[in-house]
Amino acid sequence: MKTDTAPHPAPAVNDAAGPRGRRPRPARMAGRAPARPTPAAAAHNVSAAPAALLALVAIGAALHEPVLIPPLAASAALVHCAPALPPAQPRSVVVGHLLGAAAGYAVAVASHGSAWAAALAAGATLALTTLARTPRSPACATAVVIVLQEPAPARFLPLLCGSTVLLVLTAYAASRVRRAAPRYPVYWW
To answer: Whole-model pTM?
Structure first.
């Protein structure tokens, strides 16, 4: 799988004491953060994710509905900047947010919009997405938004579903625009 990152040399392991008499950290302790992306990859991600979010804003303006919600911004960042991760795959994006919405509405009916209930809805979403094998942390935020804002399900659910599908399609298209970009998705379902 391509990572499209700048070359990152492996840290050297050396038994000799370094400056000030300290031993260098072993390679296993040197850090596991991914390598810095190449400038082209960074520019691609920084342009593709906002383009998808601007499309959601445009759709919302045309419908006179707020389509861009914070969990979708987090989803756009995941699918465009970490396209190989399981939470970025289409199954997790679409199904995860729908499970979050289901948990949010179920808890909202029982609790009437308290912050305590929002926390429970996020926990229920985490459990549901784990059981469904659709890891999706932004879906927990979707449940919180639903509990605290109580949007009408007949309007919100189609917009949420359409928005998640749009994010998946824009990530798919963006991964084909630049030849060196990692291909999205790794798996569809």
So the answer is: 0.80
